Amino acid sequence: MKSFLLAVCLCFSMMASAQNVEKVGTVELGLPYDQALAAMKAEWGDPSSKNEREVTYKHKTYKGFEFDEVVFRFRNGKFNEARFFVKVGSRYAAQQRMEALAKEMGKEKTLSKDIEEGGAWFYKGGRAPSEAAPLFTLCTIPRKGAYGMELRYGPFNFEKPEIYSTIQK
Question: Which pTM does this prediction carry?
Answer without folding.
Answer: 0.81
